[in-house]
Amino acid sequence: MADGEHLLLADDPQQFAQQTIRLLSDHDLRRRLAANARRLVEQQYDWRQIGQRFATLVEENVSRTTRDAHE
Prior knowledge:
Number of strands: 0
Number of domains: 1
Shape: elongated
Helix content: over 70%
Order of helices and strands: HHH
Number of helices: 3
Largest sheet: none
Radius of gyration: 20 Å
């Protein structure tokens, strides 16, 4: 996730208030952040994507464990 692309970050209460006001007053920004965040979730947190990343992680660890056992 990236600040200004998927969400607005704030380091303190004053910045949080400023970002909230910015978001409430800028319809285009709100729409863009929402669309980008949804796209990010659909692409990276889809069950198929999660399953593929998990399978790759398991395969890498099995390969590494097997390789280390033979050394």
